[in-house]
Specification:
This protein has about 625 residues and is of the alpha+beta class. It has three domains: about 170 residues, Sandwich (Jelly Rolls); about 210 residues, Up-down Bundle (Rhopdopsin 7-helix transmembrane proteins), CATH 1.20.1070; about 150 residues, 2-Layer Sandwich (Alpha-Beta Plaits). It has 18 helices and 22 strands. A hairpin with a 2-residue loop joins strand 7 and strand 8. The longest helix has about 35 residues. The radius of gyration is 32 Å and the shape is globular. The N terminus and C terminus are likely disordered.
């Protein structure tokens, strides 16, 4: 019992650590399209949600010039954030599909000071003007489904105004989602306050995804060695599925890495991951507590989720979103079912049942809070991320306890065996020798693992991971020291023909010989040789000038030819040869190292196009372009 109380206390402390210190806010309300946010001033961390009455122009796409000229016909004022289908025009509710313009006039303080707007997901595309300047867009706003292109992103817009009046003009169209308009409010504040809030959100989401991904990979790894215990497998898949889902919701982190990620694909992935989350939880529960769980319920969950997946894949978002409410009801029933299973398991004193019950109660609590937030349109931050992390921790304890029990059983059997053979000194001595040998093997294995983690297993050159780390670190050093850095990309000419003619075993030997030749072309302490891909290798030479790098490249070509490895099917020589692309840069500020790689790759391509078996180094024009980056 004491252990359970300790776990609860630790989870409480952890949840307190994870709750971010949100920026203070106040709550002005827009009236007749005007909102006073002069309470936000520099040096403060106040934020204001732009809620209240926005001017509303239904089925009109107006830009700031149209508004100024009075060309639009005001439909009325709409409470934001809101989906326009809740707005009644001439006594009738508006359809989910359509387009509209929203206008809000803001009264601000401190002119010419940088302010910011945090823009949430908007259904399903938009354009935003601030004081007549187009500042943000998502997708393509259109007047029908053919001209409208949806996109699902979040943005922060920084702006300044030379007057105390700021006009926001927001065009929104929706022909792909079930509803159109805003669900979450635009948030206004100083640049530092909005950025800080965004950083907190991204850090929280990144931590959550990291915890889920690592937990998923860890438990999947364990399941590979404990194939009879499927609870590890399903829990690992649950964590990875939830990590994927968290890339697609709230801040939509996947669009931070892939800005043009297809909207339809993102929506389908989001909903299918929701269906799978429940199915994997049901499968996990069945294999964790098989005596208390129901196979029939699990099969029903699989069947229902399968139907929803098929519907989501076949139909458009406006169709499958309509049926989500029924799945949510089934999920609530499923959560109640899981609660009953875990209570029964706890009453029967199943291993880890108490931890599982605590984790499920935490999870169901945060689901209830988020459901209340959804129903009552409560706009504060969701506590889902805290709940899911605590849920993962609790169930990790459950599975750890199962493993611990297995280890304890193994230890107990070993102890009993030792006691049984206590009088046999020669066996004890023999066992001691075996253990000592195992320890030495373990030390050697750890040493090999350390080497393998940074080296290519075939050639002994650095692997791609080591190459990326080495190049990134030395690019930073080159910026600090204002020194050059050179990169050689080396490709074995017609290596596929070589493999086809001489076989893959001989091809592997050829790769090893070429790497050894490359390594002898410069002092080992001067740079790094890495296997970049297949028959392609990279050489990083920190501090080497363009001429020095070219000399090394020429030397590599000569050394490879001197190997005299026969290659009858080569179009350039009767022995193995290489083509080399060389790039050298001086960087004045931090840039993506892919630009250096791209430059070297361009020269490698040029060397190949000029007939191969040669070096192509950058020209003075290339150098000038790259050094001005």
């Amino acid at each position: 019992m004491r252990h359970h109380l300790l776990i609860v206390f630790l989870l409480f402390v952890l949840s307190g650590c994870m709750v971010q210190s949100t920026n203070s806010s106040y709550h002005p309300e827009a009236v007749a399209g005007v909102i006073d946010v002069t309470g936000i001033q520099g040096g403060q961390h106040k934020l204001a949600e732009l809620n209240g009455e926005w001017s509303f122009y239904w089925n009109q796409l107006l830009d700031p010039a149209d508004i100024e000229a009075g060309r639009g016909e005001l439909s009325g004022y709409i409470d934001m954030p809101s989906n326009w289908e809740k707005y009644k025009l001439n006594g009738e509710e508006l359809p989910g599909k359509g387009y509209a313009t929203f206008v809000l006039n803001m009264q601000i303080s401190e002119i010419n000071r940088v302010k910011a707007l945090s823009i949430p997901k908007i259904y399903s595309n938009y354009k935003l003007w601030i004081n007549g300047q187009l500042e943000a867009a998502s997708g393509v706003v259109g007047t029908d489904s053919a001209s409208s292109v949806p996109q699902k992103i979040t943005q922060i817009i920084y702006f300044s105004s030379n007057t105390n009046q700021v006009q926001l003009v927001l065009q929104i169209s929706n022909y792909h989602d079930l509803r159109g308009g805003l669900w979450d409010p635009l948030v206004y504040g100083t640049a530092s306050a909005v950025s800080m809030k965004q950083d907190h959100h991204l850090a929280e989401r990144g931590l959550l995804i990291g915890v889920l991904a690592l937990s998923g990979i860890y438990h999947l790894g364990i399941s590979m060695f404990r194939k009879k215990d499927l609870s590890m497998l399903y829990f690992g898949l649950f964590c990875l599925n939830d990590a994927l889902r968290n890339l697609l919701i709230d801040e939509v982190l996947i669009t931070k890495y892939f800005p043009h990620f297809p909207w339809a694909l993102a929506m389908r992935m989001e909903y299918i991951s929701l269906y799978m989350e429940f199915v994997l939880l049901a499968l996990f529960t069945l294999h964790l507590f098989p005596k208390q769980a129901s196979k029939k319920f699990t099969k029903a969950a699989l069947a229902i989720a399968g139907i929803y997946v098929i519907v989501t894949l076949i139909f458009q978002a406006e169709v499958y979103i309509r049926f989500l409410i029924f799945y949510q009801i089934f999920m609530l029933v499923g959560l109640l079912y899981a609660l009953i299973v875990f209570i029964r398991a706890a009453l029967h004193r199943e291993d880890g049942a108490m931890y599982a019950l605590i984790g499920l109660l935490i999870f169901e609590t945060v689901v209830a809070f988020d459901l209340l937030k959804y129903i009552f349109r409560y706009s504060e931050r969701s506590i889902y991320s805290i709940g899911i992390v605590l849920f993962i921790i609790c169930f990790s304890f459950v599975l750890s306890k199962k493993l611990s029990k297995a280890f304890n059983t193994t230890e107990q059997l070993a102890n009993e065996l030792t006691e049984l053979n206590e009088g046999l000194d020669w066996k004890v001595h023999e066992r001691t020798l075996v253990i000592e040998e195992s320890r030495k093997q373990l030390i050697e294995l750890n040493r090999q693992l350390q080497e393998w983690s940074m080296a290519d297993g075939l050639t002994g050159a650095a692997n791609r991971r080591h190459f990326d780390e080495y190049l990134g670190n030395h690019l930073m050093l080159a910026i600090e020291d204002q020194s050059p850095i050179s990169l050689l990309l080396i490709d074995i000419d017609y290596f596929k023909r070589y493999n086809d003619s001489y076989g893959h075993i001989q091809g592997d030997r050829c790769l090893q010989a070429v790497v050894n030749a490359i390594k002898t072309s410069f002092p080992p302490s001067d740079g790094l040789v890495a296997r970049y891909g297949g028959e392609e290798f990279a050489v990083v030479l920190p501090g080497y000038s363009a001429d020095q790098a070219k000399d090394i490249a020429e030397k590599v070509c000569d050394l490879v030819k001197q190997l005299r490895i026969s290659h009858e099917n080569s179009k350039v020589a009767d022995v193995i040869t290489v083509s080399v692309g060389v790039a050298t840069v001086y960087l004045k500020e931090d840039k993506e190292y892919t630009k250096l790689i791209k430059l070297a790759d361009n020269h490698l391509y040029k060397a190949k196009s000029l007939g191969r078996n040669q070096v192509c180094a950058q020209s003075e024009i290339d150098y000038a372009v790259e050094s001005s980056v």
